[in-house]
Amino acid sequence: MKRKIFFSCILLILISVKISSAQSITNHIQGMVLTTDEKPLAFATVKLESTNYASSVDNQGKFSIRAPNGEYILIVTYANYTVHEQAIVLSDTLALLLDPIIIQSDSRTLREVIVSDIQKNKFARKETEGPARMPLANLQNAQAYSVVTKELFQELGAITYNTALTQTAGTIAQTGINDNGNTIYLRGFPLYRLNRNGLPIDTRIQTEIFNLEKIEILKGPSATLFGSQASSYGGVVNNVTKKPFESYRGDISYTTGSWGLNRITADINTPMNKDRTALARINVLGSTENGFQDAGKITSLGLASSILFKANDRTNVRFDAEVLNSQKPLRSFIRSASRYEGYKSMKDLPLPYDRAFYSNDITTARSNVSINAELEYKLSNNWISRTSYLFNQSGDKNSIFLVPTVISDNEMSRTYLNFDSFIITYSTLQQNFNGSYKLGAINNQILIGAEYSLFNNSFMAQEPWFTTYDIIDIRTPYWPPMTLGEINRNRTAESIGSSNTESEGYSISGYVSNVTNFYDRIFLMISARLNNYNEKTNKIFNPGTPANPIASYREIPGYKQTNISPKIGLVYQVIKNQVSIYGNYANSFRNNRSQLGYVTIEDFNDGKPPEIIKFAPETANQWEVGAKFEVMDKKINATISYFDITVDNTVRPLGPNMSIQDGKTNSKGLELEVISNPLRGLNIALGYLYNDSKYIVAADNLIGKRPIWTPKNTANAWVSYKFLEGNLKGIGAGAGMKHVDQVTFSGSNDFFIPANTIYNATAFYDQTKYRIGLKLNNITNEKYWDFGTKPQKPIEFLVNLSFKF
Question: Which of these, 544, 647, 783, 803, is most buried using a 10 Å CB contact count?
Answer without folding.
Answer: 647
